[in-house]
């Protein structure tokens, strides 16, 4: 009778099985042996030290690394644009093969002086500090760069928060420019038409600016909630309405300055002006303190309140939120109203602060559109928006000194801002250039899509 399992009795298989069994037993015996004190087991991998873990995490596509490397890329590309736009420096490259030092030295001089002036105009000027120590100038000159940076930062915080808040609720608010325009109109009208005592006058003017933005945000909000009209189209059109309304209003009797033939309104009373924080010689005012409080308030609203939870739920999935009993109509309307309030406060800063004291066709500048960039750079998170606004304010303040001392056009600063946003919005590009860890980059792209 044949064996039902012929392979089990095969003579050529049995030695191999015995050898494998012996090797397995030997391995088990070796693993069972206790390791010598002070010496790791031979099969165990050594744990990475703290420094190695820090370097591994640092060179991963996380938020900090991508933002920092995006700044580096923007600075490098900006340096190339400076060299290309300067005819004298560019001419040295025509004979770079014979005398390369001329091209390198001239390029380095141009770029280093430009970025040095950018730093001196926005953060710290060593010459002013030395002059203060020697008694050649006062302390105001030392704090002047920081003062200018904070002055430009304050309105951008409000418009950035307005756009970010709408983003978190699933709405794309392009109308921060128009909301800030209506806010600056009502704030200025309250500032020079209402005869009120100093403290009350300022409070009424600030609230009037917030009310103007709320009204201009309510319109696209209710249209989105009730009629399903797209908020992008509505807010863009309302931007034009607000701009032309400002242009028409300035030249009306009772609003235009009777002593001026051009389009400018009466000046806001000093009782309605935001107080300056560092004296009359420095422009920084209390608006930056209100901006920090507004940032804290938006962060609390989003993360600690019931309304913030409903807002984020509607932004993530309006159908699921409606099924859960959340009023999507009410939430959409409140989102745009709150966004309008923030943008209106940003507009009121432009006329109640130290930027201007009267209405002009360009009094709002581009703070509404810059707020979109600030919100994107800040990952639509409140404190991130504050830091992004601080960066943009520094670029604007330092750009003025770059233009005055280095001859660099102010438009180049706008290019730097755009490059920073482009690189941050494309983390895959930054990862590919610097060869960042792919595993972290995947999580980065997912987080970026969700709005961090």
Keywords:
single chain, mainly alpha, 452 residues, disordered N terminus
User: Helix/strand/pairing class, anyone?
Assistant: mainly alpha
Number of helices, counting only DSSP H or I runs of 4 residues or more: 19
Alpha-carbon distance between the termini? 74 Å
Please, how many domains? 2
Query: In what range is the share of β-strand residues?
Result: under 5%
The value of Rg in angstroms is 31 Å
General form: globular
What's the order of the H and E elements? HHHHHHHHHHHHHHHHHHH
Helix share, percent: over 70%
Largest sheet composition: none
Query: Which segments are poorly predicted (pLDDT under 50) over 5 or more consecutive residues?
Result: 1-19, 25-33, 439-452
Number of strands: 0
In round numbers, the mean pLDDT is 84
Structure commentary:
- The protein is an all-alpha fold and 452 residues long.
- The chain has two domains: 59-122 and 390-452, no CATH class; 154-377, no CATH class.
- The protein is 70% helix and 0% strand.
- The protein contains 19 helices and no strands.
- It has helices at residues 14-32, 50-58, 63-85, 87-91, 100-122, 126-134, 139-168, 176-193, 198-227, 231-250, 287-304, 306-316, 318-323, 328-352, 367-377, 382-406, 411-425, 427-434, 438-450.
- The longest helix has 30 residues, at 139-168.
- Residues 1-19, 25-33 and 439-452 have low confidence and may be disordered.
């Amino acid at each position: 009778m044949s064996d039902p399992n012929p392979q089990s009795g095969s003579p050529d298989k049995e030695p191999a099985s015995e050898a494998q069994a012996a090797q397995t037993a030997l391995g088990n015996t070796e693993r069972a042996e206790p390791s010598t004190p002070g010496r790791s087991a031979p099969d165990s991998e050594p744990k990475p030290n703290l420094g190695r873990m820090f370097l591994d995490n640092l060179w991963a596509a996380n938020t900090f690394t991508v933002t920092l490397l995006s700044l580096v890329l923007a600075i490098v590309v900006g340096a190339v644009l400076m060299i290309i736009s300067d005819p004298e420096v560019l001419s040295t490259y025509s004979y770079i093969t014979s005398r390369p030092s001329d091209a390198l030295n001239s390029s380095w001089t141009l770029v280093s002086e430009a970025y040095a002036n950018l730093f001196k105009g926005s953060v710290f000027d060593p010459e002013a500090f030395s002059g203060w120590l020697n008694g050649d100038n006062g302390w105001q000159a030392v704090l002047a760069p920081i003062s200018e940076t904070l002055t430009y930062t304050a309105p951008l915080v409000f418009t950035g928060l307005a756009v970010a808040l709408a983003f978190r609720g699933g709405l794309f608010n392009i109308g921060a420019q128009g909301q800030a325009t209506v806010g600056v109109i009502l704030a200025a009208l309250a500032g020079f038409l209402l005869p009120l005592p100093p403290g009350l006058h300022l409070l009424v003017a600030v609230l009037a600016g917030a009310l103007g933005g709320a009204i201009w945000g309510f319109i696209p909000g209710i249209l989105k909630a009730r009629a399903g009209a797209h908020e992008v189209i509505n807010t863009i059109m309302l931007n034009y309405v607000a701009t032309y309304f400002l242009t028409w209003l300035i030249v009306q009797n009772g609003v235009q300055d009777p002593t001026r033939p051009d389009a400018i309104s009466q000046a806001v009373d000093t009782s309605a002006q935001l107080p300056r924080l560092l004296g009359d010689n420095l422009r920084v005012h209390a608006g930056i303190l209100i901006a920090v409080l507004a940032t804290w308030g938006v962060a609390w609203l989003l993360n600690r309140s019931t309304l913030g939870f409903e807002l984020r739920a509607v932004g993530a999935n309006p159908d699921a939120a409606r099924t859960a009993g959340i009023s999507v109509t009410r939430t959409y309307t409140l989102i745009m109203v709150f966004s309008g309030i923030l943008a209106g406060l940003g507009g009121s800063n432009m006329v109640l602060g130290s930027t201007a004291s009267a209405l002009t066709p360009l009094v709002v500048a581009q703070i509404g559109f810059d707020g979109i960039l600030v919100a994107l750079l800040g990952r639509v998170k409140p404190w991130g928006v504050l830091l992004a606004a601080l960066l943009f304010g520094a670029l604007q303040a330092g750009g003025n000194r770059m233009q005055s001392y280095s001859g660099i056009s102010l438009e180049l600063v706008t290019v730097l801002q755009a490059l920073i946003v482009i690189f941050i919005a494309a983390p895959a590009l930054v990862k590919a250039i610097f060869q960042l860890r792919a595993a972290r980059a995947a999580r980065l792209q997912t987080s970026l899509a969700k709005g961090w």
